[in-house]
Design goal:
Chain A is of the alpha+beta class and 99 residues long. Chain A contains 3 helices and 6 strands. The longest helix of chain A has 20 residues. Chain B is an alpha+beta fold and 98 residues long. Classes of the chains: A alpha+beta (99), B alpha+beta (98).
């Protein structure tokens, strides 16, 4: 069955593995996510070995269409984030689901 | 930014922690995400994004070099969807610079 984990589960893991207080563990999880977000907002690529790579791609402006009304709407140029999982992550996900 | 730079930033902000503990903290977070995905679970980090596992159906592929047909089995692949806040931040900073 599929569970959904949150920040709480990550800080619980830090608490368990490192032995800091729950409060401090939660703050550290937050700063890790914060630093990754800051780098990405600056347009920087974030490459975490054996985890994966977050990169920013620039999308050009194009004419979109409202699928319901068929009306044309301009889509402004924007930046999107893509995540490319590492081989290790792909292998572990593929192997985990087989068993 | 790479893993070691991230560890360095966290270590600088937390001078009371040993470097090896900071390494362990950062590694634990990424390891926990991979473990969850390997179990088929989803990780939802509000404002940042969500990691999940997607099923790719079995299909008949083709070797692009030889044109030969090959059976590709169904497989499970990791997927990341950017959170709303982060997606907005990516575009805000682009506008500020303009």
């Amino acid at each position: 069955m599929t569970k959904t984990l949150t920040r709480m589960d990550l800080s619980e893991a830090v608490f368990r593995e490192v032995g800091l207080s729950r409060n401090e563990s939660a703050q550290l999880v937050e700063s890790v996510l914060g630093h990754i977000s800051d780098a990405l907002a600056e347009g920087e690529q974030v490459k975490i070995s054996s985890f994966g790579t977050f990169s920013i791609r620039d999308k050009a402006a194009r004419v979109g269409r409202n699928p319901k009304t068929g009306e044309e709407v301009p889509i402004l140029p924007r930046r999107v984030l893509t995540f490319r999982p590492s081989h290790l992550m792909k292998e572990r996900v593929a192997a985990g689901k087989k068993s | 930014m790479i893993r070691s730079e991230l560890i360095h930033l966290i270590a600088e902000e937390n001078p009371h922690l040993y470097q090896r503990d900071v390494e362990k903290i950062v590694n634990t977070i990424f390891e926990e995400i991979i473990d969850a995905l390997a179990n088929g679970d989803r990780i939802e980090l509000r404002g940042f994004g969500a990691f999940s596992v997607k099923k790719r159906d079995a299909r008949t592929g083709r070797n692009p070099r030889t044109g030969e047909s090959v059976a590709v089995e169904e497989k499970y692949v990791p997927f990341f969807k950017t959170g709303k806040l982060l997606r907005e931040r990516l575009n805000d900073s682009a506008n500020e610079k303009a």
